[in-house]
Amino acid sequence: MRGTTVRKDLSGLTRLEQIDELRARMAAVTGEPAKGAATPVESPAEYALEVGLPAPLPRRGITECSECPALAVELIRQVTAAGGYVGVIGWADLSFAAVEHLDQVITIPDPGSDPLGIASILVEGLDLVILHSAVEMNLSPVRVRPLAGRLRRGQAALVLVGWKAPSPALTIDAHVSAYRGIGRGTGRITGYDIDVTVADKTHRQHATYGVGQRPRLRAV
């Protein structure tokens, strides 16, 4: 029928078919094709994403994270290295140089006027979706409800950076605390430490997350 859109159910599709369908939906919204994630393979759908933090990222749940590009890239690197698929929305200046499996990343640098709509599409079929805003945005329960409903249909962990949602399942405060490999006017960066605080509704945990040369995770 003219003017009617038939929405395909993703549950019966392979991962490749799911990604193709998501790309088609995003193209319909943004008017241009999404970048990346050309040839996906099946990835396990565990209850949570283990990424080396004091607590895993909850699938089908919302995590709020402070603005820390180094941590975001490391999350992307770990999820894709484990065979997962990632979407990054609204973070045009994020560097993916440290990510080896770029074919498993869908990037939407400019989501236009409907970033929540794009996120709602991606969370149905990917493993990790990062939604970024350069300015702080507060989501009311009414605005977040449709996104949360789509999130529960899929297996993604949704990480909000620069967005505030009511009652997130997890919050992460992170910043780079030290660089390794450089001296006074000499050397080059071979690694860095990220101080991380992870909190859910009952626990608060601190750790230092090592990236690069001599990676380590030290409880504080």
Provide the descriptors you would attach to this structure in a database record.
220 residues, alpha/beta, Rossmann fold, nine-stranded mixed beta sheet, two-stranded antiparallel ribbon
The biggest sheet, with number of strands, parallel, antiparallel or mixed sense and barrel status, is: 9 strands, mixed
* Silhouette: globular
CATH class of the largest domain: Alpha Beta
**How large is the count of helical segments?**
4
User: How many β-strand runs?
Assistant: 11
Task: Give the strand order, joined by hyphens, for the main sheet.
Answer: 5-4-6-7-3-8-9-10-11
Number of domains: 2
Global mean pLDDT = 82
State the CATH topology of the largest domain: Rossmann fold
Q: Give the second-level CATH assignment, the architecture of the largest domain.
A: 3-Layer(aba) Sandwich
Fraction of residues in β-strands: 25-35%
CATH superfamily of the largest domain: P-loop containing nucleotide triphosphate hydrolases
SSE-based structural type: alpha/beta
Which regions are unreliable across 5 or more consecutive residues at pLDDT < 50?
Answer: 1-7, 37-45
Cα distance, first to last residue? Answer: 61 Å
Approximate helicity band = 10-25%
| Run of helices and strands | HEEEHEEHEHEEEEE
Oligomeric form: single chain
Radius of gyration: 18 Å
